[in-house]
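=== RUN LOG ===
request id: a7f3
mode: sequence -> structure
chains: 1
length: 73
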Amino acid sequence: MDGVLAEVSQSYRAAIVKTCHTYVNDEIVTEMKRRGNANDDWQLSHRLIQEYSTLPNKDEIMLEQVTETFEQF
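=== RESULT ===
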């Protein structure tokens, strides 16, 4: 027991999908989580955008922007 009183993993996964909604779906998020090295949801969201985005300016999307979007959700 780690002292957690509520299961929130699905809400964080939903925030990742909402943050990246234009680029990824739940199956992609699940696959990235399964690969490992995916505990930092902000960095994971940023990686997903960098890997799956078709925007020409995707390299200009900074982690800080992704973090702010994530926190809005």
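=== NOTES ===
Residues 42 and 67 are 5 Å apart (CA to CA).
Helices lie at 9-19, 26-35, 41-52, 63-72.
=== END ===
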